[in-house]
Amino acid sequence: DAGVTQSPTHLIKTRGQQVTLRCSPKSGHDTVSWYQQALGQGPQFIFQYYEEEERQRGNFPDRFSGHQFPNYSSELNVNALLLGDSALYLCASSLIDREDGYTFGSGTRLTVV
Amino acid sequence: GDSVTQMEGPVTLSEEAFLTINCTYTATGYPSLFWYVQYPGEGLQLLLKATKADDKGSNKGFEATYRKETTSFHLEKGSVQVSDSAVYFCALNGGKGGSEKLVFGKGTKLTVNP
Fold first, then answer.
1. Best mutation site among B32, B48, B93, B101 for testing chain A: the one with the most A CBs within 10 Å?
2. Pick from A48, A51, B22, B60: CA 20 to 30 A from residue A113's CA?
3. In 3D, which of A39, A42, A80, A81 has the Cα closest to residue A58?
4. pLDDT tens-digit profile of B37-64?
């Protein structure tokens, strides 16, 4: 049973560029959440998607946007990249009732230079 | 808003030593509490959880008890192994019917030496 799959695993971008990260949820899960984990810190909640709509959002600027597709997969887009956006981006999937808990992917390591 | 404070690391122990990692929280309502573990180069894995006061979560020899009176959820293990070396995160969410976002502590790095 495949868990959460994220791509790419590593990415290097230049300041001002745009980036798209992808996530395929665990089989059977319908909800996807994104987290940003800076080096040496705990993950910070970015937003959550369910039924192709953003249900909840953390304290991140509008440069961070997302999308969920009919097959429940999701994308995280970041525009106008800043050096401070360098982090590990984690995707977590769950059922909307959370009975199965949250399953995290291994993350995408984004480096902005 | 909700927050989690956990013991700063790093923590270095010898194999078979007793482990305690302290975690306290601030939250409204009735949060659910979690411990996650992150091995090098990997994502987060749920270690254990508790959803109401006095619940004890346990897994792989690790235990934590939800203490509402002290707003704490300390992680313990009686005898650590080298394979337990990882970063441990305490976290909470809003519980059943509450906010779904997980709020994490900063993490505690544990190194176990043979």
1. B101
2. A48
3. A42
4. 999 888 899 999 999 999 999 999 999 9
Q: What pLDDT was estimated at residue A70?
A: 96
A48 in contact with B at a CB cutoff of 8 Å?
yes
Peptide bond into A8 cis (omega under 30): yes
Chain A's closest residue to B101, CA to CA, is A45
pLDDT tens digits, one per residue of B60-85: 999 999 999 999 999 999 999 999 99
- Determine the Cα–Cα distance for residues B5 and B25; give it in Å rounded to an integer: 6
Q: Are strands A10-13 and A108-112 parallel, antiparallel or unpaired?
A: parallel
| Spatial contact of B37 and B88, defined as CB atoms under 8 Å apart | yes
Q: Is A10 on the interface with B (CB under 8 A)?
A: no
Q: Omega into B10 within 30° of 0, i.e. cis?
A: yes
